[in-house]
């Protein structure tokens, strides 16, 4: 290892002393040839950004020999990505013309490891800007992710949720943060995604198996959180954002500062949230203990050189999530739910009281890009420490006692080598690995999963063949996983020591054909896999939140799947359309199902609780999405967006639906814009509906849910450099049961009307 690091530093030093090139150029409107002032120019290989001046000119220095991709973007224009090569030039001129496009339809994506506009990808990647949170009145990032067609969320109240991509969730959907796979205690439904908006630029969502570049547990797709870009060279930038919410009388605030010079960049940011219990039926029914306290901070420092760049970041986050236990659901003689928390003196209680989850996260991430002539090496190293506790009720003590105490430590690496272009081929080879240790702490009185070690290693290769109107991608990957557990010694049930090995070979093949400008046909077939998680293998006891006894199976084998996707997309200036269909065949699908029986609780043998068992069977999920955006030139002040998504999940060879499959969804939004009104400028008004159809395609003993339609309003405007947001969600205060909510079986409705007010402003 010492020799390797020495060679790496020698290589970096060698590149540092080479001649450096300055890039100059102009950004203009390709229809009028007028220069664009304030256009953003970014080169990721050296992690540098700048903006054009009043004449549309820009300049960036410090380029060594190599191949670079430059991203140029401007509001109201289509983002452009151009590749250029630096050899021995002292100065290189790049003049870039942007095409007017009033609405972002061809964003640049990085999830596929190539910096490409969406139009050039062989599979669809949905992009969600961070500012959608404020523009839609979201309290967390999970409020905006389910607005993507084909994406839903399993929720335990409005503040604890996790993504569902085309019917798959939990360990079948991989979360990637700042370039590394994010590991948390994601095996249980009441455990949320555990990510907030701190230091975020945008979110990228890949639907379908994505194991090639990211490894196991990406068989359903990827939710990738992409960090914000550095400050423009030679500047220090600072801003803040704050939101207040009416339904739970809560609020959130975020502030940050970042700075960049020719050779260095740094930044720090902090976030805080305090939210009380939510209401429905006006303010007549408060859903007890659905509150949240969260705070966190992030800092990073990086260097930029002609050989590339390196960046080190640290993130801390702590959150306390209230738990609504199944045992707390009480009904009167008429079958109506009684709010047993009615003795709470405060109407809007904020204090954390048992039962609740406490989650502490530490993340250290190192990202390095080395330019080696015509090739590029990218290395990402990560350390994560996820500490989850669960406090249960104890008479006379508001904080209760520690029921669970779990510590998860993960060490990850990700190395990619982007090989030199060979003809029309662009190839990436690489390796990824992880060591994960789960330990039960000394404070917990029970164990749900045993102490365990997981070791992963994988090798992959992906190649793209690019022509003017046709792109082809093909790749393969090999993965090996070892899982070893220890026999439980501090639990009321038996969990024996086991040792398991899982191997898998994955592949992917995709094609994109553009027969005419802005029209793209895509098709792909890909495979994925995941190993059973500790919960599915080792469960043998009562879950307090659901008040059910769950039993796993140590003999479960790995899950594998093969998914076919096909789509057609047209993205023009006046109309955008996309239609997609998929078929996902899953071998050895693991699911939990009620047995219809009751058994004695391991916590209190005199209490009978429902018995649930994990089972394994082949399954299939199929469906599709349709999206239509209208923005005609004759109506410059508005545009319409509509989308429809549907799917069906069934066990193979059986007339049995899969549990908790998302219902058909139909979303509509009308946007109206105008330049100014008095001293306020850049107005945008939005009115829309979110329709969820009735869900009758349910598993045995699963509750059906009726359909509903929610109305929302949004308004944002600017005063000087400040931006203001006003939103109303569930405007008509409808009472509805969300089929993806874990509260639906208790007949507890989702949140009623919520009005939010926010502000974003620069501090420097």
UniProtKB/TrEMBL annotation:
Residues spanning the signal sequence: 1-19
Query: Per the database record, which ranges form the TonB-dependent receptor-like beta-barrel domain?
Result: 375-731
Note whether Transport occurs among the keywords.
Answer: yes
**Gene3D superfamilies named in the record:** Carboxypeptidase-like, regulatory domain, TonB-dependent receptor, beta-barrel domain, TonB-dependent receptor, plug domain
Show the Pfam families listed in the entry.
Answer: CarbopepD_reg_2, Plug, TonB_dep_Rec_b-barrel
The record's section on InterPro entries has: Beta-barrel_TonB (IPR000531), Beta-barrel_TonB_sf (IPR036942), CarboxyPept-like_regulatory (IPR008969), Plug_dom (IPR012910), Plug_dom_sf (IPR037066), TonB-dep_rcpt-like (IPR039426)
Q: Which UniProt keywords apply?
A: Cell outer membrane, Membrane, Receptor, Signal, TonB box, Transmembrane, Transmembrane beta strand, Transport
Indicate the segments forming the TonB-dependent receptor plug domain, all copies: 118-222
Topological category with respect to the lipid bilayer: Multi-pass membrane protein
Annotated compartments: Cell outer membrane
User: What family does the database annotate?
Assistant: Belongs to the TonB-dependent receptor family.
Among PANTHER family, the record links this protein to: TONB-DEPENDENT OUTER MEMBRANE RECEPTOR, TONB-DEPENDENT RECEPTOR NMB0964-RELATED
In Swiss-Prot or TrEMBL terms, this protein is called: TonB-dependent receptor
Which taxonomic lineage is given here? Bacteria, Pseudomonadati, Bacteroidota, Flavobacteriia, Flavobacteriales
